[in-house]
Amino acid sequence: MKKRLPVDRYTNREQSWLAFNHRVLQEAQSDETPLIERVHFLGIFSNNLDEFFRVRVAYLQRMAAVDAKAKTTLGFSVSETLYAIHSRITELQVEFDDTFRQVQEALAEEGIQVVEPASLSSEDLDFVGDYFRDEVRPALVPIMLRRGNDMPELEDGAVYLAIRLRMSESKRKLALIQLPDHLPRFLILPEREGTQRVMFLDDVIRAELPRIFRLFESESIEAYAVKATRDAAIDMDDDLSRSVVAKMERGLKRRSSGEVVRFLFDGQMPRDMLQSLLRRMELQPGTSVIPGERYHNRRDLMAFPDFGREDLTHPEQPSFTHPRLQSATSVMNAMEEGDVLLHFPYHQFVHVVDFLREAAIDPTVRSIKVNLYRVAKNSQIINALINAAHNGKQVEVLVELAARFDEKQNIRISNSLKEAGVVVRFGIPKLKVHSKLILVTRKHQGRLRRYAHLGTGNFHEGNAKLYEDLSLLTAHPDITKEVAKIFDFFESSFERKTYKHLFVSPFTNRRRFTALITEETDRAKTGKAARIRVKLNNLVDAGMIDKLYRASQAGVKVQLMVRGICALKAGVPGLSENIEVRSVVGRYLEHSRFAMFGEGKKVRAFLSSADWMTRNMDRRVEVTAPIYDEALKAQLEAHFDIMWKDNRKSRLVDAEGQNLPAGDLDAPALVAHQELYVYHSSQRG
């Protein structure tokens, strides 16, 4: 019988995630955030919520459908969790809508106006009409909803206008129009009296509805936005005759018709019209039916135009050349001289690309091995690998097809790599490969040398400008030898390898991190100073949390920077009074994971691809690398200290999961993402 975990020891995972997204919303509310960036944060909040429904809510609904008394891994009732989620999201939706209105008002004060059809002049109507005729109308396919006809399956995440035509008091018709997703969501109108104006694509269509439906000679036309969010799970069949790629392609097709987990509608829609739509859709019991505002898919606010207003956006922070690579003629030669720690987006991601480009043309390079999770659409990484194959190098790439929402892209790049002669592998059965590894092997004058990249982030040039991540470039023979073992494991997964330096999930990450926590706990028990500092995206695993609780009870000072979900309850007397949890949400998406144990000259530091979640410890291939270079350890300590001292974008996450102000509020303002930029600038010498 499975032991039930005491719920009061942990924070509900789903509630903690919603608390994280509330931190995103707080950035949209903050007057210290540049105004256009506040609009973008509203888009991020909306995008996050969409993914939450597609993944987490869908998963919980599947569990509840199988067993009404189901429990989560931390012991929470699934049905109660779903109820709490719905209640909290309703509150957040109201707060979001209020913030959206406030931001619109602030934009208007700055001479930027979001306009609706009713406020258009005759000249505006001509401009909008021309755009509609040339760009929008060819892409529209109105669907008439006749009695007895099946309701069309709403595309996941797409915005539709539900339209009611009134011919007379008793005669009405219903129709649906899907917003074209290949067009910009915003149409910039000609400036009027110094005011910049922008219009939602939805309203462009609304303004032209009489033209679309003129055949019906209706007395009035009403239009309300609706949107369906579907379960994002991919069902991979067990047909042994099909390749992994074919199975993934079939799974992706099934995803598009997954169960609806949320139906969002304009709250102004008449009730009888809403009921008519719901009857036609035949939604499953438990589906969240949520009233919203005039516009859906406000994730598109991430692309809201800035109108060239530099005063309303973040000041430019161009990435630096790493000081060790500034005058280096060769990345690999620089690695020979000592390890290099890259910190994105402060350092240029092109250093990683240059590492591969150099390997592609170096006559002494024999092989290049990479494992890929996510890459950019027009990836320089992929171009470098293809070039290496054309140059006769042995290139092997492991592609993780199951990288959520990047599956189609990964199938496409796999085909491109194969066509170039690259050996492509597709993960390991039942283990998602989430590590971020490169291994280059060189043979010069009979001497074999290896060069490795171990990182916390993906090989995605675009994300490297927005995501905060770390990459270690090393020629350390002990580390590179073990990276080679991991690539051997990818090729022959039935062979279990041993690792002395690297921690590798699913084998040793949990055990090695547990041992490090235990060592600090034992030090504290003997009266010695003990300290643990960990930076993660998510902390959910009950076993790791319990180890941290024991460390706290022994007197270890535990500082946790957790961007997203944190199931640990900090500051609880007798349980976790020596643990403090903070979270920074700001200009960049905090994504790096690293940990430091001890203080002073005895600090042991590690960077990792793994969060402290059960899946990362036990069901994925994840790699944690030690930092042996003392100068690089000092850089990580400085990095953590700057994050911890942030008193503007940091939040203290208390035992109730509340987001409270953090840092020394009486000290001068310190914003980590600005201070880290200054820090790396000073390192250039």
Characterize the main sheet.
Answer: 10 strands, mixed
Corresponding CATH superfamily of the largest domain? Polyphosphate kinase middle domain
Assembly state here? single chain
- Strand tally is 27
Taking pLDDT < 50 over at least 5 consecutive residues as the criterion, the unreliable ranges are 1-6, 236-241
Total of DSSP H or I helical runs spanning 4+ residues: 18
**Which range does the strand content fall in?**
15-25%
Structural class: alpha/beta
Q: Please give the domain count.
A: 3
Question: Measured on Cα atoms, how large is the radius of gyration?
Answer: 27 Å
Q: Give the CATH class of the largest domain.
A: Alpha Beta
Considering DSSP H and I runs of 4 or more, what fraction of the residues is helical?
Answer: 25-40%
CATH architecture of the largest domain: 2-Layer Sandwich
- Coarse shape: globular
Instruction: Indicate the CATH topology of the largest domain.
Output: polyphosphate kinase like
First-residue to last-residue Cα separation: 61 Å
Structural overview:
By secondary structure, this protein is of the alpha/beta class. The protein has three domains: 7-312, Polyphosphate kinase middle domain (polyphosphate kinase like); 323-491, Endonuclease Chain A (Endonuclease, Chain A, 2-Layer Sandwich), CATH 3.30.870; 503-682, Endonuclease, Chain A (2-Layer Sandwich), CATH 3.30.870.10. 36% of the residues lie in helices and 22% in strands. The protein has 18 helices and 27 strands. Strands 14, 18, 19, 20, 21, 23, 24, 25, 26 and 27 form a ten-stranded mixed β-sheet that branches. It starts with 12 loop residues before the first helix and ends with a helix. Mean pLDDT is 91; it is low at 1-6 and 236-241.
